[in-house]
TrEMBL record, chain A:
Residues 288-398 form the ABC3 transporter permease C-terminal domain. Residues 21-248 form the MacB-like periplasmic core domain. Pfam families: FtsX (PF02687), MacB_PCD (PF12704). The chain crosses the membrane at residues 21-42, 283-308, 338-362, 368-389. This is ABC transporter permease. Keywords: Cell membrane, Membrane, Transmembrane, Transmembrane helix. It is found in: Cell membrane. It is a multi-pass membrane protein. Belongs to the ABC-4 integral membrane protein family. The lineage of its organism: Bacteria, Bacillati, Actinomycetota, Actinomycetes, Propionibacteriales.
UniProtKB/TrEMBL annotation, chain B:
Keywords: ATP-binding, Nucleotide-binding, Transport. GO terms for molecular function: ATP binding. PANTHER family: ABC TRANSPORTER ABCH.1, IMPORT ATP-BINDING PROTEIN. It comes from the Bacteria. CDD domains: ABC_MJ0796_LolCDE_FtsE. Residues 7-228 form the ABC transporter domain. SUPFAM superfamilies: P-loop containing nucleoside triphosphate hydrolases. This is ABC transporter ATP-binding protein. It holds the Pfam family ABC_tran. It comes from Nocardioides dubius.
Amino acid sequence: MSWAETLRTALDAVRAHRLRSALTMLGIVIGISSVIVTVGLGQGAQQQVRDQIDALGSNLLIVSPGSSTDDSGTRGGFGSATTLTLADADALADPEVAPDIAAVAPVSSSNASLTAGSTNWSTRLVGATPEWPSVRARELTAGRFFTAEEMAGAASVVVLAPDTAAELFTVGSPLGQSVTVGGRSLTVIGVLASSGATEVSASEDDQALVPMTTAQQITGASADSVSTIYVEAQSADWLSAAFQEITSTLSTRHGITEEADFTVSTQESLVETANSTNKTMTVLLAGVAAISLLVGGIGVMNIMLVSVSERIKEIGLRKALGATPAVIRRQFLTEASILGLAGGAFGVLIGAIVARMLPGLIDQPVSISPTATVLALVVALAIGVGFGVHPASRAAALAPIDALRSE
Amino acid sequence: MSGHPVIELDDVRKVYSTGAGEVAAVDGISTRVEQGEYVAIIGPSGSGKSSLMNILGCLDVPTSGTCLIDGQDVTRLDEPQLAHLRNRVIGFVFQQFHLLPGMSALRNVELPLVYAGASAAERRERAERALARVGLKDRGGHRPGELSGGQQQRVAVARALVTDPALLLADEPTGNLDSTSTADVLALFRELHAQGRTIVLITHEPDVAAEADRVLTIRDGRLSEVALR
């Protein structure tokens, strides 16, 4: 019996019991569509994180003060010491020392209360250098960033991040207005554009940037220490080379032989952290989807068993007319596979529809992955075949006389 | 056609184990059916008639003895080989018609050819010819439910003929038919016999058995020849 004929017979049988076939497929439809949506949610979240991080500049390296041991032997953790200096930043900016580094932007940040007229707002006061916008890949919606001259002269100027500007100046343009910080009056010369990132770095849109020299005067901090050095590599491909140069330069400068007193992190490591959280959620949801697929598969087996006992007469007749056990087995296996595959196809369809509608309802991006779709169809087919084996073998093993005699 | 008998039984026994011990449903039957014969086997229910019919139809194998169907010893065949033999050598006609309700009459008739591996074109051509042979040329597109009992049984006969089998094996073919349809089907059998078909008809009705050239009576698993009419 040819495959085309087997397929035709199986399709006839599926069509003959439309409602039952539909109900049988339901379990697989639900399972597959939840797999599609789950994977879509997971991938959507990953894509979102990646987009956010790309928006921050993907060739960015962040040097933070690391653990240190003070004179009394007390060890401090990450960021507890101010081991980085402006001189470190200058050294990294030297193209002779670190050829793969494009630009360096040291910052010193502290918390401060800003006052504009009768409004005040507590935020991060960041002392920066003129390279900051290019290294951090940030743009301004209004005004300009401060210049090297203003930096050298510790000018009384400030650039506000968009949220900060909105908090302090509810009406009118903040440009040219005055903001008081720690008793010093600063003129607003620019407003940053939003970073485009929403989760990873929400604070990026709420900060006030002043020349580093000005920040030192306001906070009275050591003239030399910085809290973070942002380093822009020549390109994303040179990240690891830049990483090496930073590590060796700073280790030499700090006279380090064993444990470094600084940490260099990349955006990549941030992505990984964010993804690992997403992964937990995805695994959890995928587990639920897998269970519903299992239940769907058992449903297929159940219905196929019922179908075999209901069609004992048909099986007996086919055997009497010359169908071998192998042919009968193949027919029922094909039927189960059709149910599985059709269930999978409907599941993919419904999953795709839900994935399209979901972002509008829960504000979560869902991206449908072609790999997951193909895999889902293969799994659905495998479920049909896997759970069809037992009923098909039972049908094949039926003795033709018993089958024909049954009334 | 070769010269061997269509059916050759030698001391065939079929023993079933029941709670009360062993029961010999077929208890040492020896007989021959030659090509072109029209034989009726008559017996009351419980006589071993069905067991004999199953053995003749290769639906079951005897416990002991030899059973040659179209020259082949069925006791030496496995299930796929038996299926093959049923497909090629035997055309069944059942009391319950056993037509598949979801298919047209034509596709029902095609079914044995499907298992024989015939091409779609050949199947169609032969099935149409078989339907025409039983006088249902224009009913091929109808489903069994749309046909009368007599017509359904004629479709079943067409299905039995479509592979051009050596043996037409009819198990109570008129059991579910009214008298008009019964006469109809028996007339068809007679015609087929006249054309040289070998027919074995199993029944419990003496009127039906009287149609055959030769009548065998089965009682308690043993066969006896009835004098020719």
